[in-house]
Amino acid sequence: MISQRQLFLQHVGQTSDFPLQLEIDRAEGIYMFDRDGKSYIDLISGVSVSNLGHLHPQVVQAVKEQSGKYMHLMVYGEYIQSPQVEYARLLSDFLPEKLNSVYFVNSGSEAIEGALKLAKRYTGRSEIVAFNNAYHGSTHGALSVMGNEEFKNAFRPLLPQVKFIQFNKEKELELITERTACVLVETVQGEAGIRVPQDNYLQKLRKRCDQVGALLILDEIQTGFGRTGNLFGFQEFNVEPDIFTIAKGMGGGMPIGAFVSSNEIMSSFKTNPILGHITTFGGHPVSCAAALASLKVLTSQNIIADVKRKGELFRKKLNHSEIKEIRGIGLFMAVELTNFDQVKKVIDIAVEKGLVTDWFLFHDSAFRIAPPLIITDQEIEKACEILNESIELSIK
Length: 396
Fold this sequence. Notes:
By secondary structure, the protein is of the alpha/beta class. Strand 8, helix 9 and strand 9 form a beta-alpha-beta unit. It starts with a helix and ends with a helix.
């Protein structure tokens, strides 16, 4: 009888010749379980998605209740659907006053696409400034603002008039000019190996955008929903964007994304042309119900307030002499080792020991730590014990 593994390789589109091929039967909390019942600590949260862990009961209940009422009804923006309305209102309660209009999409890449279109439409300009080693998704527009040539060269031509500058390099802010429609930046660079803004860099970027009339778009797709120790990363750095994008941790495990701006800017999509941005499944009611439940849990319990302390506990317990540096903020960290070969060994050994971590697209000498925010102190200690043992075995 043909196995699930064989069917997976034959019929599910692959993106590499070496998929991890863990066959997960169920998941709960910070754990995933394979068909033999072996447990794995999920130390990457499906890449910053499962911020409340797997199968959070309030999210699951919201999905059940909404799917029993209705699912897809009509293309986006035509019908008044309670899960969309309630979520947008609650989200706005936690944001600066001008960030009061939410456009729902299905994913982070789609949120980026919509944000870029909105900035060009509102400003009437066409130049986009992005950053070296930035990652914003893999659709054509998002690929155009990816700051890594190796990953995008094979797909050219891409969007024209995209200019790249270096993160945390204040001098290069001069390259943002009156021709610039928008500057798109990750609040904390993720796939570059967790690079945190230094010396008030985001505030200086905000000031430069104001000087030349460019819109500031902050990509909060990985940093959003508590991962940095604030609901959103820009709150950590005391800066307000004109537009920001969210997805990943937004839906409690369900697929959903959004870009958020002011009513004034968002209204640009209403005219010249009408229906300036449309989507069929954006803001799906079941996904919005899950996102609403997730946001209520995050903002009503002591989860976010404890994120930085938990991050510090990781730093304390990850104490192997082979570790060169631990970068990051909150529960969004990179553990720097010697080279990719060592990182690969650590990842493989950790999987055998029941822990899943990963490397970064544009920085291959570090591995990722981004666990569910609900992880306990005891679970952190166990994860660090496995990682320290894996690092030790990697050098033998």
